[in-house]
Amino acid sequence: MPGAKNSVLKLMAATLLAPGTSTLTNVPDIEDVTIMSELLRRLGCVVAHAGSSITIEVPERPDHRADYDLVRKMRASICVLGPLIARCGAADVAVPGGDNIGSRGLDMHVEGLRKMGVHVDNEHGYLLAECEALTGASVFLDFPSVGATETILMAAVTARGQSVIENAAREPEIIDICSMLVSMGADISGIGSSSLVINGVSDLKPTKHRVVSDRIVAGTWAVAAVMTQGDITIHGVPHEHLALPLEKLELTGARIEREGASIRIQMQGRPQCVDVVTLPYPGFPTDLQPQFIALNAMGLGAALVTENLFEARFRFVQELARLGADVRTDGHHALIRGRESLSGAPVEATDIRAGAGLVLAGLVANGSTTVYGVTHIDRGYAGFVETLQGLGAQIQRVDD
Ligand code: UD1
Q: Is the Cβ atom of 284 under 6 angstroms away from ligand 1?
């Protein structure tokens, strides 16, 4: 399983914390990695790709401005904010756009940094951050935001004194960045818990780190197997990272075998619909919500899906309805009544995971389905079409 998109981008940003050459392995071949490489080059780094490895040579004095033309393509660009303040004492980062899945505030990032002595302004579409000396602080997050946890963590590792992040995110990708920072010399305890304690160190050294496997990509293939009544084995992903989604798939009627870092999914017959409530890890991942809505759309019975993280993530439901899905949304809730068959139609991907969900629905719909906007899928899935072809799907990529 390739490395996780939601980890590798932050790990690339974290290399900024130490001058010298760091290496990342198990790097997925996705568009967002290309964008992040370009962003690091603009900051003065030399980035070289070799197969699934990247080396990043970080200068003594990186530039500290992340321009809108790149940040608009990828919201995760905001993850350079913490390391740039730590290294340069300043960061000018365009306020991101990125995924079309609702407003995504930065207030917790900014509040955390302010507590650490950073002065932050928002002018002409840029966050302008400056500080004389980063000082450790105690930060209680309103919500276990992945991005805010990472920003504060990366600022804290070389801040003066101790920082505590309470109500921190606990995603496997957070554990991954903590492990990498520790290998660079950071002093972090409570890794994997919702209370991270960071004792600032004076400087960090470059490192070599393997990116954690992409649990969302693995989960997407698992849902595809259930929808198409297949039998697949996914290698190289810890099943613990997918504990709840796999339990949900068992409720659909699938047989799941978990063995070491392999997961076998076998399905016969139409799946039962399953309720899903998205929550921060270890809750059900919002990044698998569209795939499960697609599964419910062709399942037996009905299901209620509740989205608690991104309000606009149900936008894709309108596209799914074009395939004949019976889905009604009301605020945070979607009620899906399974249909015996979906019917192929042209549809538009509105974000990465919506794109994946639409393709999965297209695999089981009668006739042919054309999914437009597949550049969204390219941002997060390496060899998406090829992998499905290898599993026997009738799918091809065509130039629009
Ligand atoms: C990351 C993932 C994304 C995943 C999400 C939740 C990356 C590149 N993206 O996004 O795929 O769906 O975690 O698992 O890793 N919020 C605020 N203020 C803040 C920060 C967040 O209101 O300061 C809100 C956001 O608007 C959103 C929610 O909190 O509604 C979740 O955000 P967060 O956990 O920070 O997700 P991201 O890091 O943006």
A: no
